[in-house]
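Why this split exists: single-chain examples teach little about how molecules sit against one another. For that reason, every record in the complexes split bundles all components of an assembly together and asks for one structure covering all of them. Below is a record exactly as it appears in the raw files.
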Amino acid sequence: NAGVTQTPKFQVLKTGQSMTLQCAQDMNHNSMYWYRQDPGMGLRLIYYSASEGTTDKGEVPNGYNVSRLNKREFSLRLESAAPSQTSVYFCASRRTGDYNEQFFGPGTRLTVL
Amino acid sequence: AQSVAQPEDQVNVAEGNPLTVKCTYSVSGNPYLFWYVQYPNRGLQFLLKYITGDNLVKGSYGFEAEFNKSQTSFHLKKPSALVSDSALYFCAVGGVGGSQGNLIFGKGTKLSVKP
């Protein structure tokens, strides 16, 4: 059981380049989430998917798009990267139910030059 | 607006001493609360949660947390700190907004345990 996996682990982009961050979970969870973590700011929700086929904006969605490819996979796309998107990105998943905890992946460290 | 505050950026404790990491929240309705831990260069790991019932919640690695409704607090505690407890700790509140399962995280508290 790998849990939540993310690729790549590290990435350096130039301003204006695009890329997709991949996330997959093998726990048969319905809900998946993308966060960014910046020093002194905690985790901020970018997008989430309550179930396969649905996606919704979180607190900081500007500059990002997501795709819930199937129940296992939830990708995050940066169409035109900006230095302000330099951050550590975490994917998480959660079993359906009001009080269930989220399980996190190891993160992707992204630097935009 | 719902929010979570962790008033201390860093907490320093000597090994063997008790530790407390503070968290206060502001939500409408009944919250449910979580603590997560993040070790360097790792993702967040779930420690414990409060839903309802007993105000003292026990979790992983000997940690516990005390829910206090009147003070709107959910402080994380451990009777005897270990050097290996050194990490970044996040408090989070759920049951907020219109989206089930979404969490609001505090900014995190760095715990440093010295031998």
